[in-house]
Automatic annotation (TrEMBL):
Cellular compartments annotated: Cytoplasm
Name by which UniProt lists this protein: D-aminoacyl-tRNA deacylase
Record motif Gly-cisPro motif, important for rejection of L-amino acids, residues: 137-138
Subunit structure, as described in the record: Homodimer.
Function text: An aminoacyl-tRNA editing enzyme that deacylates mischarged D-aminoacyl-tRNAs. Also deacylates mischarged glycyl-tRNA(Ala), protecting cells against glycine mischarging by AlaRS. Acts via tRNA-based rather than protein-based catalysis; rejects L-amino acids rather than detecting D-amino acids in the active site. By recycling D-aminoacyl-tRNA to D-amino acids and free tRNA molecules, this enzyme counteracts the toxicity associated with the formation of D-aminoacyl-tRNA entities in vivo and helps enforce protein L-homochirality.
Enzyme class: hydrolase
Record family assignment: Belongs to the DTD family.
Protein keywords: Cytoplasm, Hydrolase, RNA-binding, tRNA-binding
Recorded GO CC terms: cytoplasm
Biological-process GO terms, alphabetical: D-amino acid catabolic process
Length: 148
């Protein structure tokens, strides 16, 4: 799995002109799934994301996790994280997971994050979405479970 995590002051997702999810302070997750991803990758990412200390404490150090700041998550599926641009100018997405499998893994990540006590808003898997991100910092972390 590949996840691009950004610390945000606020973020939202709209589908067909309708607001579908919105958060204040927290994380936006752009989530890509491959066919080999499953429970082990979801568990790993749930732990890393829920415990990641990238919010400032009273001394200004990045020392607090998302729970400590009452943050929320906006999770967006994004198969394009598996783009292969080695040949030509048109990316190939053959390394992205088959849609049914990828949707199941994506939904399991979201559910596990909820079970960890987090407020998780989502887009709609496979939908054409307009995502608004107000990156805070900026703080951007890239997770790739193939490199854990």
């Amino acid at each position: 799995m590949r996840v691009v995590l950004q610390r945000v002051k606020e973020a939202s997702v709209s589908i067909d002109g309708q607001l579908h999810g919105k958060i204040g302070k927290g994380f936006i997750l752009l989530v890509g799934v491959s066919d080999t991803d499953g429970e082990a990758e979801v568990d790993y990412l749930t732990h890393k994301i829920s415990k990641l200390r990238v919010f400032e404490d009273e001394a200004g150090k990045l020392n607090l996790d998302i729970n400590a700041v009452n943050g929320a998550i906006l999770s967006i599926s994004q198969f394009t994280l598996y783009a292969d641009t080695k040949k030509g100018n048109r990316p190939s997405f053959t390394k992205a997971g088959e849609p049914k499998h990828a949707d199941q893994v994506y939904e399991q990540l979201n559910e596990n994050l909820r079970q960890a006590g987090l407020d998780v808003q989502t887009g709609v898997f496979g939908a054409d979405m307009l995502v608004n991100i107000q990156n805070d910092g900026p703080v951007t972390i890239i997770f790739d479970t193939d490199n854990k």
